[in-house]
Amino acid sequence: MSKILPFTEANTQRISSLFRQSLRTAFDHSMKFDIYRQQTISIRKQFDANKHISNPQELEAAIASTKAKLAEWAHPDPYVPPCRPGGTKYQRNIPPPNEHVVPGDW
């Protein structure tokens, strides 16, 4: 994998993706909003603490440690919104097919 220089759009997208994954992981572990809010503030502080990194090697090390922490904290049963694929309401009331379900002349 090629190294991405800091302060570029590609790096911003990588960091934003890691931040969103961190927030989703925190939400999976705490379904109560007040606890989740405190965790989001802590996550934001951790990301802001590394905002100044301009050395590509340090940046890659910080990203690798963040990915490792996300893998460590991955929830075994993450929250899935009900209408999304894998949710409890996904395709609950799908419309009936227009063609015959069983082929043949009835």
UniProtKB/TrEMBL annotation:
Keyword tags: Acetylation, Electron transport, Membrane, Mitochondrion, Mitochondrion inner membrane, Phosphoprotein, Respiratory chain, Transport
InterPro entries to which the protein is assigned, alphabetical: Complex1_LYR_dom (IPR008011), Complex1_LYR_NDUFB9_LYRM3 (IPR045292), NDUFB9 (IPR033034)
CDD domains from the UniProt entry: Complex1_LYR_NDUFB9_LYRM3
The keyword Transmembrane helix belongs to this UniProt entry's keyword annotation: no
TM region(s), chain numbering: none
Principal location class: mitochondrion
GO biological process: mitochondrial electron transport, NADH to ubiquinone
Complex 1 LYR protein domain segment(s): 14-71
One Gene Ontology cellular component: mitochondrial inner membrane
Membrane topology term: Peripheral membrane protein
Task of the protein: Accessory subunit of the mitochondrial membrane respiratory chain NADH dehydrogenase (Complex I), that is believed to be not involved in catalysis. Complex I functions in the transfer of electrons from NADH to the respiratory chain. The immediate electron acceptor for the enzyme is believed to be ubiquinone.
Record family assignment: Belongs to the complex I LYR family.
Name under which the protein is recorded: NADH dehydrogenase [ubiquinone] 1 beta subcomplex subunit 9
Species the sequence originates in: Candida tenuis (strain ATCC 10573 / BCRC 21748 / CBS 615 / JCM 9827 / NBRC 10315 / NRRL Y-1498 / VKM Y-70)
